[in-house]
């Protein structure tokens, strides 16, 4: 209460002095100094009314696993916490008032999937069984008897499949070959490219299919056209931008594939 009165008083003085200056058109050095002093005092009071929260700006979370989002306090934040975690679209993830979870205010997407723990050092939100749809920005706001604090964290959700990539060989209308590399279970959309064993990019590649399943995971097929060369290694690469990891598969086309038919190249998946 005292802080609020001080703030109102200082702002009133600032506004009053500013009005006098406009009426009298006298911008003396002393009045300018008084005005600046009021502004500085007001800012100091505003800062004193809050507290700092220190969080990682980005946290990576694997689909299906639990993730902890922890923010540290910059000192004693007082008691009687009012805490709310919500998404950037204001969807409520978890809310606490007077030490009790406000389950009725929580969005259905997070029912029985969140927990909050608070101690002197900080606050932790546990998000269980991460889903693709959990990807995004999370805002934390805390109100106590010592003031307010707020911050935000970006949750980067990712998934990389554990199954092998599949390369399919098909004849092309122009007497060439069309290789199709397919993989399922990615999030977000992966980067796909082809190379030969010397590291050269294979041109004329294009995405054939890109779709999401009911869980939001991507299935991708990627094509490349080439002339028949049965001694060349063809390497398909899928890369996750979030995890900076690459999954690749290589195969050698042999003479047995010199036919108008479908065939599969089997190789090792490298992480």
TrEMBL record:
<dbReference type="InterPro" id="IPR013783">
    <property type="entry name" value="Ig-like_fold"/>
</dbReference>
<dbReference type="Pfam" id="PF22705">
    <property type="entry name" value="C2-set_3"/>
</dbReference>
<dbReference type="InterPro" id="IPR053896">
    <property type="entry name" value="BTN3A2-like_Ig-C"/>
</dbReference>
<keyword id="KW-0812">Transmembrane</keyword>
<keyword id="KW-1133">Transmembrane helix</keyword>
<dbReference type="GO" id="GO:0005102">
    <property type="term" value="F:signaling receptor binding"/>
</dbReference>
<dbReference type="GO" id="GO:0050852">
    <property type="term" value="P:T cell receptor signaling pathway"/>
</dbReference>
<protein>
    <submittedName>
        <fullName>CD276 antigen-like</fullName>
    </submittedName>
</protein>
<dbReference type="InterPro" id="IPR050504">
    <property type="entry name" value="IgSF_BTN/MOG"/>
</dbReference>
<dbReference type="InterPro" id="IPR003599">
    <property type="entry name" value="Ig_sub"/>
</dbReference>
<keyword id="KW-0393">Immunoglobulin domain</keyword>
<feature type="domain" description="Immunoglobulin">
    <location>
        <begin position="56"/>
        <end position="158"/>
    </location>
</feature>
<feature type="signal peptide">
    <location>
        <begin position="1"/>
        <end position="16"/>
    </location>
</feature>
<dbReference type="GO" id="GO:0009897">
    <property type="term" value="C:external side of plasma membrane"/>
</dbReference>
<dbReference type="GO" id="GO:0001817">
    <property type="term" value="P:regulation of cytokine production"/>
</dbReference>
<keyword id="KW-0472">Membrane</keyword>
<keyword id="KW-0732">Signal</keyword>
<dbReference type="InterPro" id="IPR036179">
    <property type="entry name" value="Ig-like_dom_sf"/>
</dbReference>
